[in-house]
Amino acid sequence: MNLGRRLLITVPYAWLVVLFLIPFLIVLKIALSDYAISIPPYTPTLDVADGWGGFKEFWSKLDFENFVFLVEDSLYIKAYLSSFKIAAIATFLTLLVGFPFAYAIANAPEEWRPSLLMLVILPFWTSFLIRVYALIGIISNEGFLNQFLLWTGIIGEPLVIMNTNAAVYIGIVYTYLPFMVLPIYATLEKLDGSLLEAAQDLGCTRIGAFWSVTVHLAKPGVIAGCFLVFIPALGEFVIPSLLGGSRTLMIGKVLWEEFFSNRDWPVAAAVAVILLLVLIIPIVLFQRNDQKQREASK
Amino acid sequence: MNTDAPFAPWQDEAATPLIEFSNVTKRFGAFTAIDKVDLKIYPKEFFALLGPSGCGKTTLMRMLGGFETVTEGRITIDGVDMNGIPPNKRAVNMMFQSYALFPHLTVADNLAFGLKRSKMPKSEIDGRVEEMLRLVQLQKFSHRKPHQLSGGQRQRVALARALAKAPKLLLLDEPLGALDKKLRQETQFELMDIQEKTGTTFVIVTHDQEEAMTVASRIAVMDHGKLKQVDTPDRVYEAPNSVYVADFIGDVNIIEGQVTKAQGEMAELSWGESKSSIRGMAGANLSQSASGAFAVRPEKVAIFTDAPMDRYNRVTGVVEDIAYLGNMSTYYVRIENGALIKSQVANDRRIANRSITWGDTVWLSWTDTAGIVLAS
User: Fold this and answer.
1) What ipTM was reported for this prediction?
2) A25 vs A34, A71, B122, CA distance in Å?
3) Which class does domain B9-238 fall in?
């Protein structure tokens, strides 16, 4: 291998080491430390000037106390499980909304498709935070949705959506929809129309052909879309804290509270480390799906 | 069964056709894809729809499959009006140009796809799949996915899948289009063999006239949504009913002129300034003293250095080009009226011994029955 190529490969690795591995090791170190009223708010800190003896003392003070605490206090396990549940339900709802979107775009006249895709991506041009705030204006008790429904007479009292899990679902579905639509669209768009005709030719009804061909062949896109929504939704912090109520329990919110309200950095760091480990599982599954798909299309 | 008589149900008044088009028209908006077509196709036929792209041959086939509706007229299959009957309710299967194999299913599952959706009991499906695999010699590949097969193997899977439900009628849309030339020729004979074995009626769409000539019992030559001629391959080649058909099927020389005699089987045509006369078979709808065209195939045109006085048909001209093809040579001879006439001659002598060369004045000649006089 020549120098140029080696250098080229070094760049992404260096990037990952500096911006991911080192920060992660720092967080891991904090997670193994103890809470202290000081700046920074944890102990021990490594003082290089103390030499080998100082390092040995530093090392001996690190322990897994915080991780044990996470298991002992049921709040954290509940928060992880609740995050999992909310992310899973939200992903499923996003799929229900996103699949018809993708199907409609893929079946639209060819000259329309770029504009329709643009419309799906367009909200990304607005800040994520502003979009979530805008949702408050729509779904709050005096929001546009309630005003409209009251005006039409469908409801007599405003619907309470804000500060519930329903608001979190609406927020996740709305903000993550493009991540679901795009991969499904990509698989549906490649679908050969003659496969549907062949299925009908061999005895399927139109709906039967849709199930046995379209849905089957869209599976890789559906799986990719679900992971792309599920992974960030699991650690989501902005949406539950802005739209969700006090009873909405998500690990991202717990993490934020530990860091900024409790200022218990070691416990917060432990929560973050566990969250990362939990997220690695779906990411590995996602990559395996991706690889399988690539092998199949060879 | 009488095996001596040639297979020609279209000549038998008593034979009942499997498919009947009566005055069928298909329009896409303002565009007329099929224009008042009447056609009968008989059981066990291998029927080819031949024509340039956009002539309506694919639309005609897709109407049989139920993928296009009929704008006007009626299509019956086995005496049943097909209007409004969806593809899944027809005893018709189609082999798609792209093969349309289900990429997520194995070869065996592709073959079983239609069977599982029919009334066939589960216990019989495996046997039928096995039988189809044997028919196309793909037993070893039953567990492969389509992307693990070669183009020729995929083509055979598509054929087997379309035949698995034992349809009354099999439609083949450019079935050999994606294969290379050598494989295509082998597969043509395999197709004919399978058609004979299964006794299924085949309707094939192709733009390759050689393929149509090889496989078909009858050919329909189409142009602009109309059937120009429906006949056996040899009749279409030897006795085209129009200049269009003569020109579309194979290579042809056309000499335009006036019909001077049209009696019985023979006709005469005078052409050029000298009003010299040539004689040939009489084509359809000839009328005397109308303008006409004489069509003769290059391989039926002989070339001489001296005038062949014993022949009625002789035309003189100058050799403009010689195409040497190894086993044969084609001479391009410019004649009096400016037309370029091709003469194809087998190279039974070495090229060094050739007596005719560029710029030579030569005589072209053919027998009285070699060409045909057509109305133009």
Assistant:
1) 0.81
2) 16, 22, 60
3) alpha beta
